[in-house]
Amino acid sequence: MSASDRGFLFMGIGMTLLGRIRNIRLNPAQFLVAGFALVIFIGSILLSLPAASADGSRLRYLDALFTATSATCVTGLVVVDTGLQFSLFGELVILVLIQVGGLGFMSMATLIALALGRRITLRGRLFLQESLNQFSMAGLIRLTRHIALTTLVLEAIGAVILAIRFSSRLPAGQAAYYGIFHAVSAFCNAGFDLFGPVSGAFSSITSWATDAVVVLTMAALIIAGGLGFPVIVELSGRRHANSHRVSLHTRLVLTVTVFLLTLGTLVILGLEFANPSTMGHMDAGNRLLAAFFQALTPRTAGFNTVDTASLRPATLFFVMILMFIGASPSSTGGGIKTSTFGVLISTISSTIRGYDEVEMYERRIPRDLSQKASTIASIALALVAVVTMLLSITESATFLEVMFEAMSAFGTVGLSTGITPRLSDFGRILIIMTMFMGRLGPLTVVVALAQRKKIVANVHLAEERVMIG
């Protein structure tokens, strides 16, 4: 049986298992967790096949599982160099996993069902609503179609530009393939690259650091993928066509995104301006370009144009803050999300000013949203703290290095100081779990695992205050 036949066989088995899972009485959060886990499992089996390796040997299953998780969770952390380790078949498996993980497996399943002429049931719409983080089920199928079309168009444009630019150094066929792979990887904020055979193992796009066309094209794809599909659709005029008002969510996402990119560029430029190992040898224009990209890529993209391990400790810590915030809801990125960060800042501001309600842009934010934002941030901090503590025990690395690794995994970023290939088996399992929770969202995983508490209507416990602060 050929590699492609095995691939189709496992995909067929996967679709059958997915159908079985849908028949089990799972809530939407549980279904999302089970579905992502199934995609990762199928990908890990395919990547462990001898046909997936460039030298025909069988990749150790734990390493295949790590790679499949990183690709499906669009992270980019790798224990083996993608371009050197995998064959064309293996690279295509990774590319499919990235696309499924970027769009969300529920969106992909819906698109396949629509292509086959199947009707989307009410239960399927509930799962899709949870996957896309929407407030209602109205217009979900239309939104899914728009997401697919937008993704295809943006990735195609990026692939053409990158392929033309890559052709200046690579053969035409290889340049075209690299253009497609890196356009998908950039839009999905995955951070996987194939430049190992060209510029050395784990080199990312450092060999293109001063090429403004490549860097800015990748940056545009990363920003588009990180804004979130609802924002892209709204800005493209496909939604709310009869309304001239931009939604509060879109305004918040754009404001926080611009703020973080501007602040990040200025801070990193200031910290690394004279660092000879990163930007010190560049001219002013290339320093600004490198600082901008380095401020952008922690927003879950994972590519780097300068050596991450050579960044100053202060820069690494600042990058960790950006990784923790991450991209926006219903996007291809991770982290606690820009809107969560925006709501937290507004909550803090309202509390300091003595307001009883959280306000922004002349709108009132429901109390349950501020509570949810605080819960997400608290669970995320707890997760990163526990993983960092465990890694500091099991790994031969500094505290800053293991904390950076844990934060990168949670934010599904993919940046590393270089310790990923040296992780112990226990460390790799920890990072796998962290990437998984980071992609799905810590609250989603917790809800999927927890038993729902039955709420008794009109029954309230006695209220009593405690001292805070």
Written description of the protein model:
With 469 residues, the protein is an all-alpha fold. The protein has helices at 3-23, 28-47, 61-72, 82-85, 88-103, 105-115, 122-132, 140-166, 172-187, 196-199, 212-227, 229-235, 248-272, 284-296, 313-325, 338-352, 367-394, 399-410, 425-440, 442-449, and strands at residues 358-360, 363-365. The protein has a two-stranded antiparallel sheet. It is globular and about 70 Å long. The model has no long low-confidence stretch (mean pLDDT 85).
Give the helix/strand class: mainly alpha
Spatial separation of the terminal alpha carbons: 66 Å
Radius of gyration: 22 Å
| Average predicted confidence as pLDDT | 85
How many DSSP-defined strands?
2
Q: Widest sheet: strand order?
A: 1-2
Main sheet overview: 2 strands, antiparallel
Helix content: 55-70%
Query: What is the string of SSEs from the N terminus onward?
Result: HHHHHHHHHHHHHHHHEEHHHH
Q: Looking at the structure, what is the overall shape? A: globular
* Beta-strand content: under 5%
How many helices? 20
Note poorly predicted spans: none
Question: What is the element layout, followed by pairings?
Answer:
Elements: H1 3-23, H2 28-47, H3 61-72, H4 82-85, H5 88-103, H6 105-115, H7 122-132, H8 140-166, H9 172-187, H10 196-199, H11 212-227, H12 229-235, H13 248-272, H14 284-296, H15 313-325, H16 338-352, E1 358-360, E2 363-365, H17 367-394, H18 399-410, H19 425-440, H20 442-449
Antiparallel strand pairs: 1-2
Helix pairs in contact: 1-2, 2-3, 2-5, 2-7, 2-20, 3-5, 3-19, 5-6, 5-9, 6-7, 8-9, 8-11, 8-12, 9-11, 11-12, 11-14, 13-14, 13-15, 13-16, 15-18, 16-17, 17-18, 17-19, 18-19, 19-20
